[in-house]
Amino acid sequence: MAEVGEDYFVVKAREGDPNVSFAWRLSATRKGYAGVRLEEAENTNLQK
Hints:
This protein is largely without helices or strands. It is built from no helices and 2 strands. Helices cover 0% and strands 8% of the residues. A two-stranded antiparallel ribbon has the order 1-2. It starts with a strand and ends in a 38-residue tail after the last strand.
């Protein structure tokens, strides 16, 4: 990363194609919900 701010970051290519695709993913745990799982769904036997 070339630059990091409080609510942003800038990515720049060091070498190669400057138009290459870039993807990222944010993953977090909601405050107060660590370890909480969704209830298991009941099998409804849906047909396609």
